[in-house]
Amino acid sequence: MASHKLHRLQSEQGEELNLDMSPMIDLVFLLLIFFMVSSHMIIVRIDQNVKPPTADNAQVAENAHGRIVVNVYGFQDELAPDLRGKIFDNDENELVTSDQITDYVDRAAQRVRESEANLTPRLHLRADKTTDTRLIKKVVQASAAAGVSDVIFGSFVVER
Q1: The whole model's pTM is what?
Q2: How many CB atoms lie within 10 A of CB 91?
């Protein structure tokens, strides 16, 4: 129906009707700017001193929300001797005792729970492939004491 009216109007005036796209382009740019400003970036700093193990069934995580990152340095030769076998939080603060790890995980879990209502805090354990398993056990147990029992073990994806 509308196309008949448009065709009749066009034939009466004898000129071609054009659609002005500039308001549509303006709207697209406004929406783009809105979503860029309203979204927030999640930055996960990766410590280059930690060389995670490779795994055949490793998967790239789809969502980085709610992660509490703990880096556990191994005993690799390239690493400075004063860093070997140490545990650090994501802000590069050393966590020496189990109580310090529990406090860090507890504070980070509280921040996660306050920022996102439906988000479960998860421990993202980035342990070097040369790490003693006793250090990994220490971090997992301290995390469980803080109420965070969901653990993600960092590893490299093996390309097939």
Answers
A1: 0.63
A2: 8
